[in-house]
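Entry 12.
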Amino acid sequence: MEILWVLIALLMIGFVLLPFLRRRRGAVGLVPAGHPDAADPANYGFARQEELDIRMPGPDQDLLDVLDVVQRTQDHRAAQQLLAGTPADGEQRWQRVQAFAGAASLELAQRPGGVSETPGGQWLRVWRSEAPKDAGGAAVHAEFLVQQAWRTAAPGSDEFRIIMEEAKAACGEAALLAPGDPVPYIVELSVARGLAYSQPEFEQVWLKILDRAPAHMGAHLAALHYWCEKWHGSRQQAYDFAEAAAARAPEGSLLAAMPLFAVFEHLPEVNLVSGFYQSEVVSKAIHGALHAVHSARPDDPMLAHVRHMLIFFLVRSERWAEAMGQLIHVDGHVGALPWTLSPDPAAEFAVYRALAVAGYEANGGSPATLPH
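Predicted 3D structure (tokens):
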């Protein structure tokens, strides 16, 4: 009987993957490197898999330089200065707060400390003790606690709740230090999800964000998680939230891409529907995201996030040329959904990139025909 179940499982996996990896014009798949039929991403100037940066979705050289200084010297002052000079209501401040908190959290995971070893992320603790009234340090500390809760404890456990309650208090302290800054409330959206705020409680936090930064894409993505079926809402509530955000998006805003993220959050575990990625709901969401990308400022910090999500859906939809058009803008950085859900984001991204290249070339494309 066990063998029968294994055979059924293999048959179902094959049924799911075959339409994705084959086309009417011939097979499109991955072959070993060096194979005569291999489509080589390097021919397009793409970075090698081992060179892909998993820390952020797109380039932020100032942030990279400061992270290097902070982690090399364990001196927080460069991070403090960078955040002090980053506008409070912009997307970039939120991304930088996440990056500094993530760096400290990962350092602590790698060096938990002991009798003769200083724990990793010590620079953040020094930052908070030496500059307790610094709003940037307070926000980074709150986000650090949130990341620690999700990384080290099981949701619903006592340990998880204790860390999240500490994070909630840290959010309140950060908000008092910077009354006009939406970031402490954006951090609290993750706390709300973890501690299962009631919908009225969640709405109170959300209204404070809307008062400060009504078109903040990062805040909308954080809020979307709460409304998803797997947390405290439903598929319809998540879709309604995303579509309302897209409908009120100002010209040039990436909020028009929100429905695509809502679709991603509710993808079926196993897709047995032929043509799902060509369905009306997916096609409409892709269209909205493409329009948002084409209308957005080239320096919008959230642009790379939308491009990465588009790559996932465009490859799944076998829209190879459009996927390649997004790849040329973000290749080199993979610190974004959907890749960060994988234990190896660089490898996950590399598979989709290789499929895009193979599909593009199978339909007559080449490095010479790809516009830059």
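Annotation: DSSP finds 16 helices and two strands in the chain. Strands lie at 22-23, 26-27.
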